[in-house]
Design brief:
- By secondary structure, the chain is α/β, with parallel strands linked by helices.
- It contains four helices and six strands; from the N terminus they run αααβββββαβ.
- It has a six-stranded mixed beta barrel.
- A hairpin with a 4-residue loop joins β3 and β4.
- It is globular.
- It starts with a helix and ends with a strand.
């Protein structure tokens, strides 16, 4: 029953994605700069019977290590701003951030200053004002050590 309670709250958290961001977010969405960084791994989708966080997170230890290492690799990162991130669709696998801070899909990095963690992600455009909230994938939130039921403030960078 406790496992179902965690999954049942996920759709409600996704609705929270319209919270405003901090005033440091740019006024206009910006396109990521072109880069030669490696593509972000896209693991298999979770099984239809998935009920727990571990079942929904289908990433491997190697994939998790790859995106953490990629986040710390030297790159010409460009800060796009800060945003409030809610948990995105847990059935959508991979390391991604759906955000109004970009208007073109591309590689990026997300930092969670509260935990001092970073993860490489695919930045995916999300309709809405640049002050709107963002949706972060389950594996990315776990690697950032962000609370799955919280609304962490993260810093977004284009690569």
């Amino acid at each position: 029953m406790r496992q179902f309670g965690c999954v049942a709250v996920l759709p409600f958290l996704a609705a929270c994605a319209t919270f405003p961001t901090s005033p440091t977010a740019p006024a206009q969405p910006q396109k990521p700069v072109e880069t030669t960084s490696a593509p972000i791994p896209k693991p298999a989708p979770p099984p239809a019977s998935a009920r727990t966080v571990e079942q929904f997170d289908t990433t491997t230890a190697e994939e998790r290590a790859e995106v953490v290492q990629a986040a710390t690799a030297p790159a010409n990162d460009r800060a796009l701003g800060t945003t409030i991130a809610s948990l995105g669709d847990p059935a959508d696998p991979g390391f991604w951030l759906k955000t109004p801070l970009v208007d073109v899909e591309g590689p990026g990095r997300v930092d969670y200053p509260a935990a001092g963690t970073s993860v490489a992600v695919t930045l995916i455009p999300l309709d809405g004002p640049s002050t709107g909230g963002s949706r972060l994938s389950l594996p990315a939130m776990r690697l950032l050590q962000a609370p799955l039921t919280g609304l962490p403030e993260v810093t977004v960078f284009a690569r």
